[in-house]
Structures are given as structure tokens and as C-alpha cells.
Amino acid sequence: SVELCHQVHSGTLDIALAIEPQFAIYKNCSWLKIQDEPLTLIVPPQYATANTATNAHDLLRASPFIRYARSSYSGQLVDRYLKDNRIVPNQRLEIDSLLTIASLVARGVGVALVPDSFSLESLGKSIHKVPLPGRTQIRKIGMIWSNQSPRVTISKSIAMYARNLFN
Fold this sequence. Notes:
single chain, 167 residues
């Protein structure tokens, strides 16, 4: 997402769908939040049915854990949640790809704490979401566009359409 924001700023791209930058938006750019993605625990379907009385924190402590890479912003959100809740998971892998993590969960490799992204819907019933107790960190997804692009009107229209589509 950082690279996408730089490309919009430099004029290489007119618009990009990205995680909200953790730095000030460039003066020549605009940002529109499209969606909030709170953290959620994803598990294989057999975990959800076999552990109906088990809460998310118990599953995180006891199950093999596939960690979102701490080098990424999303992985840092996951790490903060685990530390805030004093959870030390049984880590098996550390990966920087939401869909790869979700695919491994679907195959029964373990459980994962990830942003509840619209892209998880493509996996259908091959994963199950277990709600987290209390408040959780939120990843914000939005569109950034260049106000200096000759296509700024089209970019704004795309961003507004995307926000209406996901809300």
C-alpha cells in the first residue's frame, strides 16, 4: 500500500485501493475510506464445529497458529492484539499474504487472526469466522487518488462508487 500511495503521488497511477497510509496523505492527493476491517479469527470448519464451546482466545492459545507477518501493517495489528490480550499462540508459520493464510486455514493447517476483508468471502464455507471478544484493532481500506490527474473526476467517481458498494 505504501508503494501504491507513492505511485499515485508521483502520477504513475491515477487511483489505488490501499490500506490507509500511516503517514500524512500527500497534498496533491485525496483519500476516501471504503471499509473498516476489524480483526477476526478464521478457523477450518472442523475447528468451529468441534469447538463450539471454545472461545476465540482459547483457540488462539491451543491451536497451530498461522501468523500474519509482523513486517506488514496488518501483521502489526495482529501482534498488538495478541500482546494486549496476553496471548502467546502456538505459531507454525509467518506469512505476508492474507489469501495464502486463509487458504492454509481452509486446508486445516491451523488458525489465523486476520483483518475481516471482503476478499475472505471468496473462500466461502471453507473457513469459519470466530468473533473476538471485546474491541479489536481495525484496518482501514480506502482509495487514494491524485488531484492533479487529468482524470480526477473519474477517480473521484470510482472512489464514491466503491464506498457505496462496500457500505
